[in-house]
Amino acid sequence: MINQIESNEERPETFVKLRAVKYVRMSTEHQQYSTENQSDKIREYAARHDIEIIRTYTDAGKSGMRIDDRVSLQQLLKDVETGSAPECRAC
Considering the entire predicted model, what is its pTM? Predict the structure, then answer.
């Protein structure tokens, strides 16, 4: 669970900004929510919660049914497993 600090409260001296990666995917160009829209929403959420986005993984034009063709998702999982994305959380 993430501890939230209200904007009008002072941060404790030990406050450490969370770091995260974002993953966006879109099956077709005709979908309602483009990868840009998804990215914008994640960026807004991160800003509201003092989270620093350190990397973006994108699979455009990829179905969500199978992981086989989702190269960026596979890389994200590999980075988490190997520690290549240290001290971060996926949003």
Answer: 0.71
